[in-house]
Amino acid sequence: MNPCERWPRLWLGVFPTPLHRVRRLRDDASLLLKRDDLTGFGLAGNKARPLEFLMADAIAHGCDIVVTGGAPTSNFAGACAHASAVAGLDCEVLVADGPASTVPIRLARACGAAVRATGGDRALIEDAIAKRVIDLELEGRHPYPVPRGGATPVGALGFASAAFEVHAQLEDQGVDPTRATIVLPVGSGASLAGFIAGSAAMDLAWRVVGVSVSRPAPQMASHVLALAAACSALMGSRPATSGAFTIVDRTGDVLTEERADDMGAARFMRESEGILLDPHYGIPTFEVAWTMTATAEQPVVLWQTGGIPAAVESLDAGNEHERRVLTPSGSM
């Protein structure tokens, strides 16, 4: 039994999301795609998973306003505002320094969220959320704080449940889950933490690789393990051990569309599989998965999380690169 089913959940997405082999990049079933870009909730992608549990938890606690934050380009911040509107809750999004108008911020405003600039770095968002929660409580409101990426034990339940989901899908496709390698992008750590907590609840030893783009590997590993333990405590299951996952450090290595085209990642996926990879999470994670040794019996499962706004915006850089390459010298 999936212990996550004991927790309240506000359904936002359409699950399970598809699990299928790449159709043209390889002629076998050694690389499988877990299509969380197809969760069906706005532009949320995989963010729909934690938000289902977070919104239900906010309602269960009698909260009337959600307070979250992040960079202006944060897909989670926009998705959280969208989910809050569906849940019938007010929302405030605290935004770090950056572009004034991005797709996630436009979505948040369209959903009725109050967007507030913090005037500080993204790393200070958690402090800003905590301060704003206190101010709202003094005003008589009942706020529900949601940190960047929904990185709480409750939020991690979304990917704990996802572990059960993909396990069942692999079995349905005749693949022994213990022989699969699961590759996930890691930003806030909530997805990976939830996934290894769900894996531990199943007592399942499969290879799980997180591709960290925001913190150095040792720091991220410690954070993920602590968050996974708290998620396991909620589920009443044994916690994961440090050997349950591996972190690949890709911090400071965010790829541009120009470099991705040189290496084939973004263009290959776009023009062969029809999938858009965002430069922050999608491209580094694809590159790690692509270089792994795999067979149809021991496949790599690449978790495609979404990131559509950033993926679309990055196309401009790629087009400019192509114009420079294709335009003869001296031409306009």
From TrEMBL:
GO terms for molecular function: D-cysteine desulfhydrase activity. InterPro entries: ACCD_DCysDesulf, TrpB-like_PALP, TrpB-like_PALP_sf. Residues 11-289 form the Tryptophan synthase beta chain-like PALP domain. Its cofactor is pyridoxal 5'-phosphate. Keywords: Pyridoxal phosphate. The keyword Hydrolase does not apply. The keyword Methyltransferase does not apply. SUPFAM superfamilies: Tryptophan synthase beta subunit-like PLP-dependent enzymes. Belongs to the ACC deaminase/D-cysteine desulfhydrase family. This is Unannotated protein. It comes from freshwater metagenome.
